Amino acid sequence: MEVLKVSTTSVPKSVAGAIAAIARGGGSAEIHTIGAGAVNQAVKSIAIARGYVAPNGIELICIPAFSQIEVDGETKTSIIFLVDKR
Description:
It contains 2 helices and 4 strands; from the N terminus they run E-H-E-H-E-E.
């Protein structure tokens, strides 16, 4: 499973390209986000990636989940998106 970290400043088309490459290679992606802006960019990226791989007959599914991560010695709640092929 490939781990992608998405922030508020991430470019959705670039992240979507990474997700599409992982899906075409037969893998799955785990997208880590912290904050509303990062979640927004991640959701846009997943939607764009679905459009990239659909012509190849690949259907992506996304499962969101909460996670606790350590950042600079501080525990923060993050949202992770598990992206896999159906």
